[in-house]
Predict the 3D structure of the following.
Amino acid sequence: MLLVALFVLLDRFQQYLRSSEILRAPAHVSSGGLRPSVQPKPSGAGAAHERSALCNSFYGTICKKSGESRDPTGIVRPDIEGEIEALRIYEEIIRQHRDWTSDQVDEELVKVIYTPERRGRIESAFRWVRQTLERLIDRERRSVFTTREKTLLKQRIRGTRLELPPPAALYADEPDIFTKNEVFYERTMDGQRRMRVGGAYLFTSKSWFNVIFTLAHEFGHAIDPCELRSAGLSFPAYDRLTACFLQFGWVPFHKDRSTECGENDQLSEIFADWLAVRVTAEALKTFATEFHATQLVGAAVNAVRDLCEQDDPQLEVDLTNHPAPQFRIESIFGRNPKVREILGCGPAPGSEYCGFEFQPPVLDQAEPFAQSQTRF
Ligand SMILES: [Zn+2]
């Protein structure tokens, strides 16, 4: 008992040290010094080729790679590898402690998987994304969001908690997450907003850029059009953005607009990706001057690497809510003007990109979008 208490204390102390270290990181890096430190290497040959391959086809370049992909902050592995690693740990604990209850096994499992170091990585990325989102909202012009709208959006972001075990009881209602790759946002029955991270994800993704994209996507759900609608909020800028998604065919057009936030609708997923790409562009920008071209390409690849179809047929991509990987990677990520600028891609040919300032064309077909203003 005493030994356990001692370990808990040591654990807390290490966590404390780590968090204070993170907060004391040098101030010259943007967004509060929460990004990882890396050792840039001199540029190798073939950098121009790698960049032009990516610029020509984001999806083709990112998803043709098999196995793990690397950037200076870490790797991204196929989903299945993380899940196998988590399951192996689970089996090993059961093998060594056959007399333990499932609660005891779970407690040990989360202690081994959610180490202070891995938790720290997620926690600091969570804070980085939160700060970056707040900054992006503050930066929007008055013609996009009023001061009140900005406050409401930032409150929703601030009010979203990150829940990371231990203790295992934190995920008591869904203990199989410990060995899953899932990262998700959810609103509880009593109105709390939280984000949870599956244990396998900690093994699958060690790249800071992937964690940033993933958490930013989930934060996006805290302020996605459907969440705002269910909270009784209606912002004109969101109507314009939705109109743009419909206009360019990002979201399938339903005659009955009320189905947009229904079971099989992609509006909230497209929004979450669109927002995550904006945050990822900021993440790439913070390293743009110290990374050489190959490293920057690696960072961009890793940010969205796990959106690709996985080799394992057991892990087929869920297309009921999420748009197809090709669309997410090629159109939402690869056509974002800022991402292209940072990577040195030049503008995508003939592409319009959606934003809050979108103005629907004054044509007959603009009629349905005008109606949406009252429904949102
Ligand atoms: Zn989502």
In short: Residues 217, 221, 269, 272 surround zinc ion (CB under 6 Å).
